[in-house]
Amino acid sequence: MDSDLLSQAAQQIASKQINLHSMIVIRHGTIVVEKYFGTYTADKTADVWSVTKGVVSALIGIAIGQGSIDSVKHKVVDYFPNLTIANNDAQKQAITIENLLTMSSGFAWSDDTDVDKMMSSGSQVQYVLDLPMAAAPGTKFNYNTGAPGLLCAILKKATGMSPSDFANANLFGPLGITDVFWGKDSADLETGGFGITMTPRDMATLGQLYLRGGEWNGKQVIPADWVKASLESHIDPLMQSQKRSGYGYLLWLQTQGAVSFHGMGGQYITMVPAQDLEVIFTADLTGENFQQPYDVFESYILPAAKSNGPLPANPVAAAKLEAALKALP
After folding, report:
1. Residues 270 and 259 sit within 8 Å (Cβ to Cβ)
2. Model confidence pTM above 0.70
3. What angle do CA 184, 188, 190 make, to 5 degrees?
4. What gap in Å lies between CA 102 and CA 246, rounded to an integer?
5. Is 83 exposed, middle or buried, given 0-12, 13-18 or 19+ CB atoms closer than 10 A?
6. Alpha-carbon distance values, 5 to 2, 21, 101, 267, 324 (Å)
7. What does the pLDDT look like over 267-315, one tens digit per residue?
8. CA distances from residue 314 to 5, 28, 150 in whole angstroms, order as listed
9. CA–CA gap between residue 148 and residue 52 (Å, rounded)
């Protein structure tokens, strides 16, 4: 890693007064930079918001690998035979698990208004399933924070375990992640679109798992083919202005080969598989400022990792980096 560019990243954070809580840079499995801001520390958990969706995706992949779920092509309504579903037309009956994973279910949904309505309805599952259809499944990207709630319900029905218990046994446990909280709705089901809190280092562990093809300490925690499919674009979100070029299985494909689990307010697990690079940000950002951490990553941190070979020792640059980090609030 180029220490000069990393110090410029720190200076950019300071000059723009980006309200970060943490920043971790990892290259080839080694922590290069780890910085906490203000009152935040390594052991303080962060509300990761939509990074929760990435956890749900991983759990679905694990369940498919174990045979509890047969395929991403399985129809969603098949898992809810005892529910009376409104607007239950042929399009709704055609929605698959993969449509939920790729934000292409076709439900008439707006995150601006439906999230609050869903959470006050008593059941995220019933609320989402009752929605009218706005498009045929698989034809249109529409970001839907309610869709992963259906995946949580499917996971519970398929495995006989709550998503939290299944995660602890099959994902968090094998990774050594213990300090996790996962919120639930009024029906006692984990919220799929948000709700997890964890430490930045545990976020980094999840990213490292994906960079290693789902393997951890000699165990295949997530099937390798699921990781590969998750990191491929399945639909175009038409959001080039926000540096988003595609959408995988509940994660964003971004510019220059980067992929991100991304949560509201600037929570990022950003990975660049070709460079074996990972960057974690937690933050408290509003509006369009949510993209500021990614801008720093793209402009300074990623270029610092362009060379896959070791850079010659540069004590002056290393000292500049240390000074720049210490100068941050």
Report:
1. yes
2. yes
3. 35
4. 10
5. middle
6. 6, 21, 36, 22, 11
7. 999 999 999 999 999 999 998 798 899 999 999 999 999 766 666 677 7
8. 12, 19, 52
9. 9
Beta strands in 13-145 (DSSP E): 20-27, 30-36, 46-47
Q: Is 32 helix (H, G, I), strand (E, B) or coil?
A: strand
Q: Cβ distance 160 to 99 under 8 Å?
A: no
Note the CATH number of domain 50-198. 3.40.710.10
Contact in structure between 12 and 296 (CB atoms under 8 Å): yes
CATH number, span 3-49+199-327: 3.40.710.10
- Residue in this structure with the two tokens 């299985």, named with its chain if needed: 249
- Beta bridge partner(s), residue 119: none
In the structure encoding, which two tokens stand for residue 31, read together? 């922590």
Angle at 49 between CA 245 and CA 234, to 5 degrees: 30
What residue ranges of the chain are covered by domains with CATH 3.40.710.10? 3-49+199-327, 50-198
Bridge-partner residues for 20, per DSSP?
Answer: 283
Q: What is the pLDDT of residues 141-169, one digit of tens each?
A: 999 999 999 999 999 999 999 999 999 99
What does the chain come to in residues? 329
Collect all residues with Cβ–Cβ distance below 8 Å to 262 and sequence separation of at least 6: 50, 51, 251, 252, 268, 269, 270
